[in-house]
Amino acid sequence: MSGRSDSWLANAAARVVLALVWCLHWLPMAAQDALGRGLGRLLWWMGGSRRRTALRNLELCFPERALAEREAIARAHFGWLGRSILERGMLWYASPERLRRLIRIEGEVDFAERHPGAVMWLVPHFLALELAGTASQLFQKRWVGSIYTEQSNPVFDQAMRTGRLRFGQGELFSRHGERALPLVRAVKRGAVFLNLPDMDFGLKDAEFVPFFGVPAATLLAPARMARSLKMTVQPVVAEMLPGGQGWRVRYLPPWTDFPGDDDLAATRRVNAWIEQEILRNPSQYLWVHRRFKTRPDGAPPVYR
Questions:
Q1: Contacts of 207 (CB under 8 A, 6+ apart)
Q2: How far is CA 169 from the centre of its chain?
Q3: Is 93 in contact with 236 (CB distance < 8 Å)?
Q4: Strand 192-195 and strand 118-122: pairing?
Q5: What is the CB neighbour count within 10 angstroms for residue 283?
Q6: Lesser CB count within 10 Å: N end or C end of the chain?
Q7: Distance (Å, rounded) from C-alpha 247 to C-alpha 131?
Q8: Collapsing DSSP states into helix, strand and coil, what is residue 232?
């Protein structure tokens, strides 16, 4: 009985949070920016483990920078993190017309639409990641497929799936489903694969590849899929703009020479490119993720 009661309370709390996010999405973007940054300050003080993870990641990746500079990046990061949480309401509930006004597109957003073959979008984990999927459905016509991690709370999971698929132009494949076969079938039917290449999922199908000089367990799947399915890879980066300006999504020039014959070299190239993008906009990268939790044999853990 206690388990059922806990589940009911968790679902009720999730519905309250979603209702609040829905209400807030009607506010002007400048007001949402201010509220989001306020939420970020609260998360900074309350989220001890996340704060420590972000500071540790920045220490590992930028050891040459002063502690005060790394802490300033982390504090700014939590401001953007708070904003990204509130802006789920905009991306999941706002009208397509409002979203189109607020999203600035740079580069060849229609490359996949024009390209006759299979296409993979490489989208690193910046805090506006959710926006990349939305923009890819609003500004081009090709079907989009992506892998997602199921949420432990069924109410949140359903809200996320509904919000991400509400334009009727995409499909989500669970990371815990029947491997990659459904996704491969979708790509062969013409779907663009929106690929998130920079999370630590352990060593299965991965290798240790330097990330800012630190060995990071990195999936080889982007290189292997690109080769086996003859996919052209186009990097895509989404970012939040300050104040009430909205967002920007940059569709960068496709990599016509990727992946080559060496999966490890191709994966190093992906990580090197992500490093360049982080240096361009360090406070909006997902520093609260334990990117280095998987360690080489004999290496001590880097997180307490």
A1: 217, 218, 220, 263, 264, 267
A2: 19
A3: no
A4: parallel
A5: 19
A6: N
A7: 8
A8: strand
